[in-house]
């Protein structure tokens, strides 16, 4: 009985928090929020009861810095000096979450949001955007799937969280700009992002042009199941290969 009351209270708090988030966003991102309203009988991720059924603890929004992704010379498509979506992953406080299984991805699942996905979740390394989305769904998105939270909801949620998370601006507000060859303190990058979005998990790769120095490649932001920003837990969060000083290249 007590557990049921606690669960009901948590859901009510989530609804209140989500309403506040949407209210704030309406003032700044009216068109984006309109995009999120249920259309053509698609479920909306505003259905918090459905979201509570998803069997994990928090969301990990993985952003890729396009020049770092492409700096080894492996990209087959044009890229820009911007962050874009790399994935939306399930997070757990107690275990690693591996590959899940579920419905098969079809391009028609995302027809209503194809334009937005092409812009903010592009493929860089291979020539097909849908191939990247299919891989993301098969590897990570199926972990989210419930009767009320399906393929279209997964991609719409990733877009929504991305639109609310301008990491590049947060860094620039802190005086950190992408400059070829310039190193920054990892702690400064973390502090700038933490101030706006909670503590991130940073991932780095090596830049061949700059003598294999580590460079900022991905930023992971974490959200609880009410979509509020949280610090990314150090355990089971994706962090890889970032020393105390790292590059943030522009091209």
TrEMBL record:
Q: Where is the signal peptide?
A: 1-25
Name the UniProt key words of this record, in alphabetical order. Answer: Signal
State the source organism's domain of life.
Answer: Eukaryota
Q: Which SUPFAM superfamilies match?
A: Ribonuclease Rh-like
Q: Which Pfam families match?
A: Ribonuclease_T2
InterPro entries in alphabetical order: RNase_T2-like (IPR001568), RNase_T2-like_sf (IPR036430)
Write out the similarity annotation: Belongs to the RNase T2 family.
> What is this protein's name?
Ribonuclease MC-like
Please tell me the species this chain comes from: Cucumis melo
